[in-house]
């Protein structure tokens, strides 16, 4: 293990824990703890960004999931967002009132409700995205292209593992 004198932010790990874990495992624990610390900051930032339109970060996340998945069921959207079916239903109700999302009956199974974005949703993001992208890219200004790609690919792998663990309820 490298020197304990310059390991960077410890995120609660003391010298004994660092020695026991080793730097590689300690970095993995510290990364998880860092993500937990970063998450509310990102949510607050995005809530402020969308506030003028009356859209929350959770609503925007659901719209992004629907755009990514096409026409997911409520349950599929809930699984990707790591939340409950009931929470997604509440988000859907608000987004339907705003004209950004619609619920359609699945033609092959009438019990299943499918989520679809609307033309208004596409217009909304087309209007917002250029300014939002410019503002949000400043968060990654200190990363070069290789670091940004590595961060993205690494987080996707962690997300895939997290989804798999969530489906099995085994950690």
What is the structure about, briefly put?
The protein is mainly alpha-helical. 66% of the residues lie in helices and 6% in strands.
CATH topology of one domain: Arc Repressor Mutant, subunit A
Number of strands: 2
CATH classification, class level of one domain: Mainly Alpha
Distance between the ends: 26 Å
Classify the secondary structure makeup into a structural class.
mainly alpha
Helical coverage, percent range: 55-70%
Helix and strand string, N-terminal first?
Answer: HHHHEEHH
Q: Report the CATH architecture of one domain.
A: Orthogonal Bundle
Specify the biggest β-sheet: 2 strands, antiparallel
Spans of at least 5 consecutive residues whose pLDDT stays below 50 are none
Number of DSSP helical runs: 6
Superfamily (CATH H level) name of one domain: Winged helix-like DNA-binding domain superfamily/Winged helix DNA-binding domain
Mean pLDDT: 91
> What is the spatial order of strands in the main beta sheet?
1-2
């Amino acid at each position: 293990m490298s020197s304990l004198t310059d390991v960077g932010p410890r995120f609660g790990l003391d010298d004994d824990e660092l020695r026991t874990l080793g730097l590689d495992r300690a970095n993995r624990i510290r990364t998880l703890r860092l993500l937990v610390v970063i998450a509310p900051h990102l949510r607050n930032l995005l809530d402020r960004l969308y506030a003028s339109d009356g859209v929350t970060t959770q609503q925007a996340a659901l719209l992004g999931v629907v755009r990514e998945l096409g026409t997911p069921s409520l349950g599929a959207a809930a699984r990707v967002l790591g939340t409950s079916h009931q929470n997604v239903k509440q988000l859907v109700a608000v987004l339907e009132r705003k004209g950004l999302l619609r619920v359609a009956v699945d033609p092959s199974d009438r019990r299943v409700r499918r989520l679809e974005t609307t033309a208004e949703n596409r217009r909304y993001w087309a209007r917002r995205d250029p300014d939002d992208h410019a503002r949000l890219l400043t968060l990654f200004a200190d990363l070069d292209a290789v670091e940004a790609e590595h961060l993205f690919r690494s987080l996707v792998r962690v997300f895939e593992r997290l989804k798999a663990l969530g489906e099995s309820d085994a950690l």
